[in-house]
Amino acid sequence: MNFEPSDDQAMIAETFARFFEENSSMARVRAAMPSGFDPELWRSFAEMGGFGIRVPEAQGGSGLGLFDAVLVMEEAGRSLASGPVAEAMIAARILAACGEPGAALLGKLIAGDAVVTIALHDAADTHAQWVAGGAVADAVIVRDGSTLYLVAPTADEKQVKPNLASMPLARIVLNGGARTVLSDTSDALHAFTAGVEEWKLLIAAALAGLSGEALRLASAYASERVQFGQLIGTFQGISHPLGDLKADTEGGKFLVWRAIRDIADGVDRAGAEVSLALWWNARTAGRTVSQALHTFGGYGLSTEYDIHLYNLRAKALPLILGDPAQLLEEAGRRLYHGETTVLPQVGDVSVEFDFGEEARALAAEVDAFFEANLTPELRARAHYSFDGHVPEFHKKIAEAGLHLPSWPKEYGGRNADAYASHAAYAAWEKHGWTTHAVGVTGLVGTMIRMFGSDELKDEVLSRIVAGDCICSLGFSEPASGSDVFAAKTRATPDGNGWRIDGQKMFTSGANMADYVLMLARTDPDSAKHRGLTMFIVPLKAEGVEIQPVFTFQDERTNITFYDGVRIPDTWRLGGINEGARVMSQALGMEHGASWDKTQWHMLREAETFCRDTKRRGVAMIEDDKVATRLARVVGHNLITEMLGWRGMWAAVEAKPHHGQGSMGKLFSSEAFLRDSADLLDLCAPESLTETTGPAAYINLSYRHAQGTTIYGGTSEVHRSVVAERALNLPRTRA
Questions:
Q1: Where would I find the Acyl-CoA dehydrogenase/oxidase C-terminal domain in this sequence (predicted)?
Q2: Confidence label for 446 from pLDDT (cuts 50, 70 and 90)
Q3: Which of 59, 60, 28 is nearest to 41 (CA)?
Q4: Cα dihedral sign for 298, 304, 305, 310?
Q5: Considering only CA atoms, which of 290, 295, 230, 289 is closest in space to residue 732?
Q6: pTM of this structure
C-alpha cells in the first residue's frame, strides 16, 4: 500500500505549486476579471509543458499519466488558475488521437499559441452549449454523433454574458455555420468519450485543491481573529464544521486517486467511481467554501477578501457539465443498470491500495477456518457486539493462531502486518462473527506487553495468548464520558499494592471478561492529566460489582463498581502518575477505528433486499432513484475505506500525526449513521421489523450506527483532533 506520489510526481506537484503561486496569485486572478482569462498565465503554463502533459512524446508532449495531470490540477484549483486549463489538456489529448488532421492545431495548443477547448455534450443532442473557455477559444472540439468536428466560432457566434465566477464561458451553436471534420474514426471517438471521463477527474482534483485552500484560509483567519476575548478558532461552532470538511476534502482527493488506480487495474466499478469522484468533490467544495466564507463573518462577503473568489469558483467549475446530482444518477446506472463508458488510459500510477499477498493468504485462511468451524448453532449465536463472544470458539480460534495475527509468534501471533490483520478481520465480518472481544483484548494485551511487569505477563498475558480470557476497558465514568482524564475512580496505596474505589461506565464486555484496563486517580492534588495511573484489575476480584446497561442497539454494556478492590503493585502499567502517557497509547490505537467492513456488509444487504423486493410489480433496484441512493452509499463507503487505509498506512510508515486516524473514524461513523438511516427509509416498511434477512440487518445497522459516533471518542472529540492536528487551529476545549 502506498499513499505517496513517486519522487518524480512529487517534484512535478511542487514545481507546479510554485508556478501557480507565482503566476496565479490572487492579484493576478483579480486582474484577469471579468473575462476570467490570463493570457500571460496561458503562455507560461505552455512553456512549463502543462498542456502536453497527457500528449505522447512523439507528438510533442510529455507522455505522462493521468495521476500526474491530477496532481497539477490540484494546484491549479488551489490557485484558481484563470482559463480553461483542464479543457485544454483534454483537447490536446483528443487532437493527438486524431493524428494528422489535428497535428497543426495541437502544436499551437502545446506552445500556448492557441486556446482550444471541448464541448462536453454531444451536439446531436444539444445543439447549443455553454463551453468552458468558449469566450476566448480559437477552436472547440465537438462531437456530433459519430463524427468529431472543429468549430472556430467568430465573435458574433459566441454568446458571452457575465457569469457566477467570472470565467471565460460562452454559449456557442455547435451544429451550424462553418465547421471542419476532425475525425470519424472509432479511435478518435473513443478518445473523446474517454476525454470527458478524464475531464471529470481533473475537475474533481481541482475542486479538492480549491477546497483545501479555502479551509487553510479559514483556519488561518480563525487562528488570528479575536471575538469575545478569545480566538474564534477555539469556538467549536467554528472549528468543528471545518474539521468535518477537512475529512470530506481529504476523502474527495483520495476518491479521485482510487478511481485512477481502479481504472489502471480494470476494476468493474471504476466507471462509476469517476462519476462519484466529481459528484462528491463538487458537493464538498460547495459546502466547504460556504463554511469557509462563514468563518470570516461579514468580511467574507466583502470583495476585498479572497475567500469569496473561492466560494464562487467552487460552485461554477463543475456546473458547465450540468447539475452535479446527475453524476450520482449516472453512477447508479453504471453500478446497477449496466451502463458502460470508455475510460481513459491512465498510464503509470504510483499510489497503490492493494494489501498484498500476505494479506490475501491470511484472509483466505481465516475464511476457510470459519467455513469449516462455524456450525449452525454458532451462527445462531453470532452478534456484532460482545454478546457474540463464545469462549469455547474463541479458544479454538486462538489454537489456530488467528485471534491476534499482528502479534509476534512467541505471543501466539503471525507477525502479520497491519494490512494483513485488516484483511483477516474483514473475513470475520464476512461471516458475521464479532471482533469486539479480540479487538479489545488485543489492545489490552498490547498495553501489557509494552508496560506490564513480568508477573502480569506471566499471569494475564499468557491467558490472553492461549485464548483463555478476554478483557474490557475501564476508561469512561458516569460524570466524565469522553473526558477520560477527568476520572475520579481512586487508586490508593495499600501495603505493597493498591486499593481501587469508584465506578466505570460503559464497561462493555465486563460481564464476560476476566480483566479490565483501568485508568485511576492516584494523586488527587495534582493537575488533571498528571495524577493518573493505569492498572489491570481482575473483574472476578472481591469488591467488584457488575450491573447491566442495555442499549437500544440490541447490545449490553455495563456499569462496574469497585469497592475496596485490592491488587498488587505489579499489576500497574507504567509509572505512578504517568497514566496519561500510557493512556495515550491506548487511545491512539482506539482512535484509528473504522466501520468500513460493516458499512459494506450493510450495503450488500440493501442491494439484496432491493433485488428481491418488488414495488408496483418491478424489482426496486431497477428504479433509477433506488440505484442513485445505493450509489451514494457506495461513494461514502469508498471514502471511508480510503481514509481508513490512509490512517493505517500513515501508522505503518510512521508518518507525522496530522489527525489521520481521527479523520477516518469521524467520517466512517458519521457516514454509517447517515447511510443506515437512509437505507432504513429505503427498505421500509419491511425494515421496521427485527426478524431475519436483509431488512432486519439494516434495522440493526441503524441502531448499531448510533454508537459508532460515540465509541472510541465521540465525533466531537475527533472533530477537535482534526481541527487542531490537520488545520492547526487552537485548542477547541478552552
A1: 200-333, 578-726
A2: very high
A3: 28
A4: positive
A5: 230
A6: 0.95
Q: How many Cβ atoms sit within 10 Å of the Cβ of residue 657?
A: 14
pLDDT given at position 387: 94
Across residues 271-279, what is the average pLDDT? 98
User: Which three cell numbers mark 525?
Assistant: 492534588
266: Cβ–Cβ under 8 A, 6 or more apart, which residues?
none
Residue with grid cell 464561458, as numbered in its chain = 169
Q: Structural domains in the chain?
A: 7-190 (1.10.540.10), 471-590 (2.40.110.10), 596-726 (1.20.140.10)
| Paired residues of 537 in beta bridges | 516
H runs (alpha helix) in 64-185: 66-78, 85-97, 100-111
Per-residue confidence band for 526, with pLDDT thresholds at 50, 70 and 90: confident
138's grid cell: 480559437
Cα 477-247-269 angle, rounded to 5 deg: 120
User: Roughly what angle, to the nearest 10 degrees, separates helices 85-97 and 66-78?
Assistant: 160
Question: What does 453-516 look like in DSSP terms, one character per residue?
Answer: -HHHIIIIIHHHHHTS--EEEE---TTTTT-GGG---EEEEETTEEEEEEEEE--TTTTT-SEE
Q: Measured on CA atoms in the order 536, 542, 547, 548, is the torsion positive or negative?
A: positive
670 in Cβ contact with 709 (< 8 Å): yes
Residue 319 CA to residue 305 CA, distance in Å, equals 24
The C-alpha atoms of residue 88 and residue 717 are separated, in whole angstroms, by: 44
Three-state DSSP at 385 gives coil
In this predicted structure, the answer to whether residue 469 has a pLDDT above a threshold of 80 is yes
Could you give phi then psi for residue 58, rounded to 5 degrees? -65, -20
Query: For residue 2, what are the β-bridge partners?
Result: 352
Record the cell numbers describing residue 679, joined without a space. 437505507
**Residues 154-175: b if buried by 16+ CB within 10 A, e if exposed:** eeebbeeeebebbbbbbbbebe
Query: Mean pLDDT throughout 425-429?
Result: 91
Cβ count near 55 (within 10 Å):
23
> What is the arithmetic mean of pLDDT over 18-32?
98
For residue 220, the number of C-alpha atoms closer than 13 Å in the C-beta half-sphere is 8
Residue type for position 310: Y
**HEC string of 552-600?**
CCCEEEEEEEEEEEEEEHHHEECCCCCHHHHHHHHHHHHCCCCCHHHHH
pLDDT tens sequence across 623-663: 999 999 999 999 999 999 999 999 999 999 999 989 999 99
Task: Find where cell 468543528 sits.
Answer: 240
Q: CA angle at residue 204 from 199 to 206, to 5 degrees?
A: 95
Answer yes or no: is pLDDT of 177 > 80.
no
Cell of 558: 455495563
Partners of 501 in beta bridges: 490, 563
Contact 144, 175 (CB under 8 A): yes
Output the DSSP codes for 190-231.
Answer: HHHHHHHHHHHHHHHHHHHHHHHHHHHHHHHHHTT-EETTEE
Cβ pair 553, 707 in contact under 8 A:
yes
Coil, helix or strand at residue 529: coil
Q: What are residue 561's DSSP bridge partners?
A: 503, 545
Residue of 135, 116, 169 lying closest to 313 (CA atoms): 169
Question: Can you give the pLDDT at residue 590?
Answer: 43
Q: Residue 405: count other Cβ atoms within 10 Å of its Cβ.
A: 24
> What kind and span of H or E run contains 551?
strand 544-551
Identify residue 410 by its one-letter amino acid code.
E
Could you read off the pLDDT of 53-97 as tens digits, one per residue? 999 999 999 999 999 999 999 999 999 999 999 999 999 999 999
In angstroms, rounded to a whole number, what is the distance separating the alpha carbons of residues 115 and 168?
Answer: 11
Q: Which residue has the cell 478483557?
A: 471
Q: What is the pLDDT of residues 345-388, one digit of tens each?
A: 999 999 999 999 999 999 999 999 999 999 999 999 999 899 99
Given a contact cutoff of 8 angstroms between Cβ atoms, the answer to whether 394 and 462 are in contact is no
